């Protein structure tokens, strides 16, 4: 796909992987719309790259509809959607307090919240964006490209990651069926599974912790750079034969149980 002059929407685009992707798309001539809950950062980035911002909670159908409508009114119908909105928690399925012996189970509302954001929120944006892309005329045999963000935790989740792994595993699991659903409409769908990246979730961690995490990565032994995620997203957009794939981007790490 020729990127120059087309429109993209990046969810979770105000920071981390999403912000890096928004910047790289803009550098390649794309008009970028940003969905995020952080209005201050989102508006600042949109101004920086000459794009547009919409405050969107991906768990809300009303928010998502309004967000797409606002971006399309300013920048036109998107041909690219990059789903980076997501979050996680760390809670064991069931656990025992070592001091009191009290047994607790995973609060189901907290499990459901992660599924709502990471899995259902991603699917909601895919469905809405794909419907919009279907109104476009193909360019060089393509109407659009959708890129999702899963995690290596989809395949080797750690202790306490049941909800996160389930949500990201769901994103991986739906990639090929959605690519098949949209094949006749000339819309491609792929998913990136990042490993340990230097994003805002880790930037507040002590340097010793970050160094220990980096040492777990076989090669290169460092944290991933968000720009490396963005580079892969750009290639998935440009390469017209890239479809229905789930790609790890992790320096060959395989996560230990803890």
From TrEMBL:
MF terms (GO), sorted A to Z: oxidoreductase activity
Oxidoreductase among keywords: yes
Source species, domain of life: Bacteria
Keywords, comma-separated and alphabetical: Oxidoreductase
Gene3D superfamilies documented for this protein: NAD(P)-binding Rossmann-like Domain (3.40.50.720)
Residues in the signal sequence: none
PROSITE patterns: ADH_SHORT
Coiled coil spans: none
Sequence similarity: Belongs to the short-chain dehydrogenases/reductases (SDR) family.
Protein name: SDR family NAD(P)-dependent oxidoreductase
């Amino acid at each position: 796909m020729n990127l120059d002059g087309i429109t993209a929407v990046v969810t979770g685009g105000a920071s981390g992987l999403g912000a890096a992707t928004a910047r790289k798309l803009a550098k390649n001539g794309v008009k970028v719309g940003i969905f995020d809950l952080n209005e201050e950062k989102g508006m600042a980035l949109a101004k920086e790259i000459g794009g547009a911002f919409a405050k969107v909670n991906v768990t809300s159908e009303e928010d998502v509809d309004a967000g797409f409508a606002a971006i399309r009114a300013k920048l036109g119908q998107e041909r690219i959607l990059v789903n980076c909105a997501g979050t996680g928690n760390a809670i064991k399925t069931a656990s025992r307090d070592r001091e009191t012996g009290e047994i607790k189970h995973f609060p189901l509302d907290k499990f459901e919240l992660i599924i709502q954001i990471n899995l259902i929120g991603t699917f909601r944006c895919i469905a809405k964006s794909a419907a919009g892309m279907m109104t476009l005329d193909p360019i060089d045999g393509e109407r659009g490209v959708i890129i999702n963000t899963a995690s290596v935790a989809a395949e080797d989740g750690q202790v306490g990651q049941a909800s996160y792994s389930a949500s990201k595993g769901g994103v991986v699991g739906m990639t090929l069926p959605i690519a098949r659903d949209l094949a006749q409409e000339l819309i491609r769908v792929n998913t990136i599974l990042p490993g340990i990246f230097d994003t805002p979730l880790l930037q507040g961690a002590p340097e010793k912790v970050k160094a220990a995490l980096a040492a777990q990565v076989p090669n290169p032994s460092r944290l991933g750079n968000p720009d490396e995620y963005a580079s892969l997203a750009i290639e998935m957009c440009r390469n017209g034969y890239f479809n229905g794939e789930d790609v790890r981007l992790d320096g060959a790490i395989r996560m230990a149980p803890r």
